[in-house]
Amino acid sequence: MKESGDSMKAQRSPGLSRRELVGVAAVAAAFTFVPRRVLGGAGQPSANNRLNIAGIGVGGQGGGDINQCSQDGANIVALCDVDDERAAGTFKKFPDARRYKDFRVMLDKESKNIDAVVIATPDHCHAPAAIRAMRMGKHVYVEKPMAHTIYEARRMTEVAKEKGVVTQMGQGGHAGEGLRLIYEFIHDGAIGPVREVHVWTDRPGTPGHPWWPQGIDRPTDTMAIPATLNWDAWLGPAHWRPYHRAYVPHDWRGWWEFGSGAMGDMAVHNADPAFFCLDLGAPSAVETVSSGSHDETLPKWSIITYYFPAKGDRPAVKMVWYDGGKLPPRPPELEDGRELGDNGILFVGDKGRMLCGGWSGAPRLIPESKMKEYKRPAPTLPRSPGHHKEWIEACKAGKPQDAKAGFWYSGPFTEALLVGNLALRLGKRVEWDAKTMRSPNCPEADNYVTKFYRLGWGID
Question: Which residues of the chain have pLDDT under 50?
């Protein structure tokens, strides 16, 4: 289904890729398929107490997710990928899984055979796939970032609640020990009330060490579409454009049309401790500086400052995000020879500072002498059996709240992060009203809170 830009139907919504997980799966010789009706929308256990899963986007990160779900006891029933070559490894590991190139076709044909879907496509296809699946009563695991736009995150959260399905965003650190220790340290008063947070990443890269390019123009040369790739299905809801290696299979993250840049790739991990432990909610305003606004791609680097109002006993918080090789000022408490690292988060409290590694790494009070003197508090949060496993178990039990990175949490979190990209794209301060998803001082933000979809790929 190839449509030109002139023939597209503009579907506007109302109301206005990470280290790969490596799994070594012991694949069963055959799978027992249980009809969809056994679980139902509420996620009741199947007769053999195993979850029947379909994968959407199963090369790269998606392959790791599928492998892990298999190791955690799920049946892999069907696999969908637009690129046979990219997905070849996963296809080989699960030879009995039926194969598709269009997730819409797969969901329609496998509706009675699957209970849940794992989605690991580029960002722009997350919401169309997830909402379609949830409306069919399927549980959903979707890779980070949960959504491509603020409105998509809101709508995905609403549909998940309406349908009663179990959801999870692919932020593995949210299930880790590090996040729980950070929470327990902060709520133990280890550094006093927190008023400032600094978060950083090495993505999208620096000159000579790029993860993917940004701050570039759209390519003008043409390339032949690989025989193994369904380019129209890869584009999905996006405007039609000619195929180019500048987008597929790896560098799509830097393009506004397809990705969310370093914010979508790494803030989901590195800023999670701030949102979870401080209950930040939505920002009231966001300001940015960068290498410069660009219509096609995100900037080469950016520094984004979020302002969060006081809540309960917590004071107002300023959170600063750094990417593209930018770093916060070196804390004076940090000992000589010790570096901030490529990814991490620094909490600044009234009584001290706490440094944590990326992906919700374990906390360390600084200087080191404070860490040695500190008496670690007793655990107050339950520990997770594992990021994918807790989602699978929650699906079987029909308990959405048991998946701790469910859309009930990751939806508002994603919305807040994407306000930063909104300000970055507009190149100006954005004051934010989360209830209406609008900027009081910047009405042009409406153009990017939601987006247009090609006919047949919309979310409403």
Answer: 1-45
